[in-house]
């Protein structure tokens, strides 16, 4: 064990099962990606997303169309305001006195400013909850880096303690809204096909998530002390496949509805020569149409809320592809502020607190519950070393990737 790991363990004792000991936190930080809230914000926002890549504003303007078409406003900030309010209401209903703070990676309110405000308000131990459920660099490790860099920039390192809840991809609170939505979506598509006189026409369920570079996918879940082998060699892929299996099994058990399904990807960005996870959802839809499928249910399994990549890549582009091919299609809601999702997030908070502690850690797949603390070397950062909070080492940078990704959502299509 390195000196850094020993220090982290001394501050944050972890059990052999990957659990951190419960603590007396005095605030919760809701951390997210952020998005523009007006036409004048679009280019500055895209500069933030692509910082360090040297992309000129002219190129950023070329790829800003999905924001421009929506008034320069991404839905993500308002959705986070609504989620913050829902979390505050549920915490209050349970008698848990924990204020909910909010900070973003790429737009106001920025994480460093939020941490400084937390410290100035007297908070000293904060538990971070992110809007990314799965395991890969940009969904987990990068948030730890965001905090590590923010503590360094503000001079709060060693003065303000920040921990993070586990990745919650298979927590019932995240999965069950998709079970409800998928069952409703299947019923809707079959009803429309019946109205068209083709009640027995083939229907397919597409579980959609953010594509990431293949190298990042292969690093997801891989660590120095992780003995498990993941399906397709990636925890990120395996977690989605396991969730798809769990959702379809529950849908069949609870509603009697069933259909073939597959995992597809969206929102690819970066240089064309860099391999990313495939198939793209639009390519998959075209292939299904060629095989005689007449109905499609699109399930945004990789996303917490209906932000721009859901609104544009699924509701606009994918649905247009379906319409052009004559397919009956519907898009299932994301968890958003679904009561089960909000309850589940508060349960995740209570897993880590001394007061109101919940020791049971439910998981709907065999992959979970995931670790509270990243394993050494997990979800490697190929873009260079950065300071992180506990649980992610800082010694795995192996060069610079000029096309960083962000599976948390809202990447520019570059």
Automatic annotation (TrEMBL):
Q: Which Pfam families match?
A: Ferrochelatase
The organism's superkingdom is given as Bacteria
Pathway(s) = Porphyrin-containing compound metabolism; protoheme biosynthesis
Q: Extract one GO molecular function annotation from the record.
A: ferrochelatase activity
CDD domains the UniProt entry points to: Ferrochelatase_C, Ferrochelatase_N
Keyword annotations for this protein, in alphabetical order, are: Cytoplasm, Heme biosynthesis, Iron, Lyase, Metal-binding, Porphyrin biosynthesis
Q: Which Gene3D superfamilies match?
A: 3.40.50.1400
What name does the UniProt record give this protein?
A: Coproporphyrin III ferrochelatase
Q: Which gene encodes it?
A: cpfC
């Amino acid at each position: 064990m390195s000196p850094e790991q020993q220090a982290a363990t001394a501050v944050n004792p972890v059990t052999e099962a990957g659990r951190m000991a419960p603590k007396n936190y005095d605030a919760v930080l809701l951390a997210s990606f952020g998005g523009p809230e007006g036409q004048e914000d679009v280019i500055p926002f895209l500069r933030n997303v692509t910082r360090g890549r040297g992309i000129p504003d002219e190129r950023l303007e070329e790829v800003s169309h999905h924001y421009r078409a929506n008034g320069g406003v991404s839905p993500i900030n308002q959705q986070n305001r609504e989620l913050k309010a829902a979390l505050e209401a549920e915490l209050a209903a349970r008698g848990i006195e924990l204020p909910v703070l909010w900070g973003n990676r790429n737009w106001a309110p920025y994480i460093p400013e939020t941490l400084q405000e937390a410290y100035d308000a007297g908070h000293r131990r904060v538990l971070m909850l992110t809007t990314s459920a799965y395991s890969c660099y940009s969904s987990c490790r990068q948030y730890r880096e965001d905090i590590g860099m923010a503590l360094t920039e503000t001079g709060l390192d060693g003065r303000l303690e920040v921990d993070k809840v586990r990745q919650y991809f298979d927590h019932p609170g995240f999965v069950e809204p998709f079970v409800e939505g998928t069952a409703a979506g299947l019923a809707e598509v079959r009803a429309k096909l019946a109205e068209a006189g083709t009640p027995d026409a083939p229907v397919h369920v597409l579980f959609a998530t953010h594509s990431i570079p293949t190298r990042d996918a292969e690093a997801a879940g891989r660590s120095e002390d992780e003995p498990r082998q993941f399906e397709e060699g990636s925890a990120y892929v395996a977690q989605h496949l396991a969730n798809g299996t769990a959702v379809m099994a529950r849908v069949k058990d609870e509603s009697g509805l069933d259909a073939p399904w597959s995992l597809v990807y969206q929102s690819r960005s970066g240089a064309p020569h860099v391999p990313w996870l495939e198939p793209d959802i639009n390519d998959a839809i075209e292939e299904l149409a060629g095989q005689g499928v007449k109905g499609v249910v699109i399930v945004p399994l990789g996303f917490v809320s209906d932000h721009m990549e859901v609104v544009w890549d699924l509701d606009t582009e994918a649905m247009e592809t379906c319409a052009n091919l004559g397919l009956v299609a519907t898009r299932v809601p994301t968890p958003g502020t679904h009561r089960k999702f909000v309850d589940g997030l508060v349960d995740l908070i209570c897993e880590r607190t001394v007061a109101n502690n919940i020791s049971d850690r439910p998981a709907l797949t065999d992959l979970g519950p995931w670790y509270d603390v990243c394993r050494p070397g997990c979800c490697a950062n190929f873009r260079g070393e950065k300071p992180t909070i506990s649980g992610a080492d800082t010694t795995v940078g192996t060069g610079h990737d000029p096309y960083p990704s962000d599976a948390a959502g809202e990447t520019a299509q570059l």
